[in-house]
Amino acid sequence: MLWFTLISVALAYVSRPDLDPPALNVTANAGGLDGYIFLGPYLGTLAQPGGYIYDFSGELVWSGHGRISGWAGNIQVTEYQGQTVLQSADTVFNVAGFGRGHTKLLSQNYTTLTEIYAGEAHLADFHEFKMVGNDSAVVTMYQPTPVDLSVIGGPSKGWVFESIFREIDVISGDTKFEWRALDHVRLEDTLWPVKTRGNSSTNAFDYFHINSVDKDGDDYVISSRYYSTVYKIDGKTGDIIWRLVGNQVKVRSDFAHDFQFDKQHDARLHNGTTLTIFDNAMNISDVSTAKIISLDQNNRQATLVASMESPDHLHVYSQGNNQLLADGGSFVNWGSSGAITKFNSNHEVVFHATLPEKAQSYRGFQFDWQGTSPEAVAVAVDAGKVYVSWNGDTRVTTWTITKDDKPVASAPREGFETVLDLNVSGTYKVVGYDKEGQQVGESSEFTVNDDEAKAEVTETDGCPCTTLRQVR
């Protein structure tokens, strides 16, 4: 049974007062959901934007604040040289709608394995980084390029942000393949107005806006927001093999289809037969959807299988993604609207949550993950209670307070921070055990004096207050 109620998890941690992550407000949860949620919240009034992992109760699992210093879009689990790792963009976001920087790959204990750049005098953009082999990845770039814009009402000595993607060797940094939109599409087919843009390299016109790249065999599938078109690109010649065209009259679609999409994101081709997109539906509807499409590439027939709306019927101006899960369900991030939804294989809502007002995440994902924190077990003592947390760890299921290596109190792990009662003075440790009963971590020793063991409070300005002591 799916329950609908508002849970606003209070993310204020006694053991980690330095952490102030965005709250994830769960409004629908069918229960029994496995795995973790990966988001890169930013904007709004967030004190600590960055890369985050949550569980399906809305509790924080890992705050990446301080480990990923830039804009942390596209944080997800991937494979690198036989290891399961965490990737995140580490970029500077700008008002033009893209960013520049690089991608970090983090190990399962959140330490940096490598940093990957676009190479060859280009800065990578945040829209895409995807591992497409053991040592290869595709990346996007927005490169200022001089071009005559008079055909679309701009200056003859104009500038565009050229949409480029590359497949690169992540070890050597060498380029394996490069594609530039201007070599293959007509500038006059853009749906985006030039207005006052295009008169300088810093005020260049973003005419194409590439926002996803995926691989299908030796070829590539890309999405252009400002052409409302999904393209398949020949991986040897760069020629366009086919176009699936949405709300666009200037370009002919190579597929017969009876559905529309507009200003879409995140085009992914699965096993050559199923295409998923996030349809922002910017100019064709007041509701955005996550679409699943059956694609017959041989006969050029595209058939809509599912079109999923958020429970809030959101109209998403920008960003968004549609992750097809192994069980046939979908995990959908509603981009600039700051919400996420999980659908089962029948396309029914089984989970929905929102970020704080005006906060958003470029993409959002669900993955299995085992994190082993490089940080110390954090403990704070306050009025007869011990607060314990371990940022990023996913193994601990039970916390136990010990004295002289003997247990004196124990409690199941509850969310990010667990509270245990302790009203006897002495010297203690907190030990973490996994589901097999194996010890996986412990805190430093800490001493509780008689005053700290008492659960008494004093009134100060009408508020009950205690003396908090963090264990160091």
- What number of domains? 2
For the sheet with most strands, the description reads: 6 strands, antiparallel
Give me the number of helical elements.
1
Level-1 CATH class name of the largest domain: Mainly Beta
Mean pLDDT: 92
Number of strands: 37
Architecture of the largest domain in CATH? Answer: 6 Propeller
Strand content: over 45%
The strands making up the biggest β-sheet line up spatially as 1-2-25-24-23-22
Which stretches are low in confidence, meaning pLDDT under 50 for 5 or more residues running? 1-11, 456-468
Rg measurement, Å:
25 Å
Fraction of residues in H or I helices: under 10%
Which key phrases capture this entry?
472 residues, mainly beta, Neuraminidase, Immunoglobulin-like, 6-stranded antiparallel sheet, 37 strands, elongated, disordered N terminus
Q: Would you mind describing this structure in some detail?
A:
With 472 residues, the protein is mostly beta strands. The protein has two domains: 29-367, Kelch-type beta propeller (Neuraminidase, 6 Propeller); 378-448, Immunoglobulins (Immunoglobulin-like). It contains one helix and 37 strands. The longest helix is centred in the last third of the chain and has 4 residues, at 450-453.
Q: Quick recap of the structure?
A:
The chain has 472 residues and is mainly beta. Helices cover 1% and strands 47% of the residues. It has two domains: 339 residues, Kelch-type beta propeller (Neuraminidase, 6 Propeller), CATH 2.120.10; 71 residues, Immunoglobulin-like (Sandwich), CATH 2.60.40.
